[in-house]
Each structure stands twice: as C-alpha cells, then as structure tokens.
Amino acid sequence: MENINELLKQVPPAASDLASNLSTVLQSQFLSPEQIWSVALTSSFFVQHPALTTAVLADAQGVIGEDGVEDARGAAAIMGMNAVYYQFRHLIDKESYSERMAGLRMNRMVNPATSKLQFELCSLACAAIAGCEACLLAHEANLIEEGLTEDQVHDTIRIAAVVQGIAVALS
Known about the structure:
Layout: H1 2-8, H2 16-25, H3 33-47, H4 50-92, H5 95-98, H6 107-110, H7 116-130, H8 133-145, H9 150-170
C-alpha cells in the first residue's frame, strides 16, 4: 500500500477518518487479496479520480495481475453504461421499457479474463457507487447464488464506499 499511503497524506484533516477506513477495508477477513484489490481498483476507475486510480493501480497490479487490471477497467466501463441504462428503466418503471431488449454489448461480463465471480464483485461495487438499485439487486443475487456470503458482499460495498469517499475528499 506504499502508493496509497503516499496519496492518503493529501487527505484533508476533516476527512482523516477515510484514510483510516481505507486501511481497514483493504484488510478484509472475508475477501481474498485478489478480490479486495480488484474491487478497490474497479471502484477507483469508476469514481474517475486520476491520482487515486494511479495509486491503487500501482499497489494492486502485483496482486491481481494484468488480467485483473483489465477486468477491473472493463467492469467499471460496462457498469458506467449499465448503471445509467438500468437505473433509467427502474426509475421510469414502465413495462414498455422493461420489455425492450437492451441491445448493449457486455461480452466482457460474460467472458472475463479472471472469473465471473470476481467480475460480479467488481460490478457490485460500481452498482453501489452509482446507486443503481436494479444493478445492486441483480449482482448481489448472482453473488449469493454463486456461494458468496453476505459478509463478503458487505465488505465489497465497504471498499467501494471508502474509495468513493477518498475521491470526494481529494477533490
């Protein structure tokens, strides 16, 4: 966490709790190191804070490898699209929109370089940051069905929340 720790020195005193929180959530007892760093990196791509992304990427690469980096980037990008689309369908709540085919390509989601489980975790983190209820419900259900526990889901959301908070604090 050398790069992240350097970045956290820039967090203003008013947001110092977030620096402590980041250290805590990046040591989850329920997620593997690969899952932790994949979620943190995907969240940093999603919140689009360049300095934060650079720091997380530098610390995550050795843990998740190039495939993990590319899946994190892919999950953030796809969820950037999906959260807008599915949040629209959910908020408008007209059956006519729900009956239409999305017609949006999401091949990486179906065939990730790492695993579908890891990609789902990353997608869940983005759904939480975006506040997309439809996406949250779908990804959480998929993860539970795949055998993850609520503790693992909860820690995924905690990572996403703290990454978002750090991005706000540094902006």
